Amino acid sequence: MPKIDAQLGIRVTKDLKARLTAQAKSEMKSVSTLVVQLIEEYLDSKGKGNAG
Q1: Are 20 and 12 in contact (CB under 8 A)?
Q2: Contacting residues for 27 by C-beta, under 8 A, at least 6 apart
Q3: What is the DSSP letter of 50?
Q4: How are the residues of the chain apportioned to helix, strand and coil, as percentages rounded to the nearest 5?
Q5: Residues 16-41: pLDDT tens digits?
Q6: Nearest to 4 by CA among 46, 40, 28
Q7: Distance between CA atoms of 19 and 4, rounded to whole angstroms?
Q8: CA–CA dist 16, 46 (Å, integer)
Q9: How far is Cα 40 from Cα 4, in angstroms, rounded to an integer?
Q10: What is the torsion angle, in degrees rounded to the nearest 10, for the CA atoms of residue 7, residue 23, residue 45 and residue 41?
């Protein structure tokens, strides 16, 4: 994974935050790392994986 050098702030429901936290914990990752991974996988699946 490339170096993270930018921030993105988002608001989510309490339920979604709890689900993300639980999943991250089960994978022994931070929520931030999990969210970055999920976004990258989503964009790759849509053919939009490269910035440009």
Answers
A1: yes
A2: 34
A3: S
A4: 55, 0, 45
A5: 999 999 999 999 999 999 999 999 99
A6: 40
A7: 23
A8: 23
A9: 13
A10: 40
